[in-house]
Amino acid sequence: MNRIPATAWTRHHACTPQITRTRAIETLTGPGTPLELHDIAVGGRTVRMFRHAPRSLRAMCEAAVSPLPFLVYEEERFTFAEAWQSASRIAHVLVHGCGVRPGDRIAIARRNYPEWMLAFSAITSIGAVAVAINSHWQSDELAYGPKDCGATVLLADQERLDRVAEAAPIPGLQLLAVRATRLPSGARSLEALMEALGDVPMPPATIALDDIAMILYTSGSSGHPKGVPSSHRNVLAALLPWELDRNIVALTSGVAPTDPTEQPGTLLAVPLFHVTGLNASYLSSYRMQSRVVSMYRWDPELAAALIDRERLTSVGGPAAITGDLVRIAQTGATTWPRCRVSARCCST
């Protein structure tokens, strides 16, 4: 993986004086650097892209396989290696059990369970398109989304399955149930299908950078929500600048970074159907080898406890979420010495 270890800048720039942002960018993105930028033609336009960027989201996820902890939900834990194996099983179910082919739209509608992220990795790794469905949608909206994008499979938890059952069946849509205790007519249990497989490799797939990787829906404030597609190149072009910016801050501050004594970790406080939760919290964690701790729903007191228990290093979200955490911190009940709380809410 083309990550810049903190040790590289600690060793070679331990006494580096503060430099300008322009100079930092030149230093970090010049020829031969891991984050080297070069000009390429995309859609008839010349754009700048990272020369050593992964060739797809599949390549990014596979390169991150390691024994380090990755996904945490309540008492459930997955390492990066275990997450990849589970994603491979889901991919096998989709390809061999549902007939999914590259380019097919696969909808995900559920809470921030680990299976949301595992399914996303599986879908994008077989060249299909992950469609993030708003889990707050009601039955008519849940019927609209899969029909609008042309989904062939919907992966849903019990709450979403119950709402889907209230609407008319969608012809050709296969239902895979996750953490469900009641299966509606025609639905199959994803867990049961996965358990029957054992360990399997990720199915082969040829994926181009400009293939569509995912579709996120707008809020629909001016009409029906609109599906917004992003290619593998689009997503990677969003993730790597954050990686670059962390290194820019290290150089422009004049303070060399130090190796973390513990693995970084982030609290997933925003729904994964939103780009903030999906890109900024989840996908950015692969190359950082960062843990992602998810919650059933937003609960400020539980969030504070998780930051303490898991020794998390970052939390990001809209002002309502970060404001809750600031209020708890102001009580003096905790100091969170390792955690950076940032208010951010990327627009979809």
The level-1 CATH class of one domain: Alpha Beta
Largest sheet: 7 strands, mixed
* Element pattern in H and E: HHEEHEEHEHEHEHEEHEEHEHHEHEHE
Proportion of beta-strand residues: 15-25%
Helix content: 25-40%
- Class based on secondary structure composition and strand pairing: alpha/beta
Question: Alpha-carbon distance between the termini?
Answer: 29 Å
Shape: globular
Order of strands in the sheet with the most strands? Answer: 9-8-7-5-6-10-11
Oligomer: single chain
Radius of gyration: 21 Å
Blueprint (SSEs and pairs):
Elements: H1 6-12, H2 21-29, E1 37-42, E2 45-50, H3 57-63, E3 69-73, E4 76-79, H4 80-98, E5 105-109, H5 114-125, E6 129-132, H6 139-149, E7 151-156, H7 158-165, E8 174-177, E9 188-189, H8 190-195, E10 212-217, E11 227-231, H9 232-252, E12 265-268, H10 275-283, H11 285-288, E13 291-294, H12 300-310, E14 314-317, H13 319-330, E15 340-343
Parallel strand pairs: 3-13, 5-6, 5-7, 6-10, 7-8, 8-9, 12-13, 12-14, 14-15
Antiparallel strand pairs: 1-2, 3-4, 10-11
Helix pairs in contact: 2-9, 3-5, 4-5, 6-7, 12-13
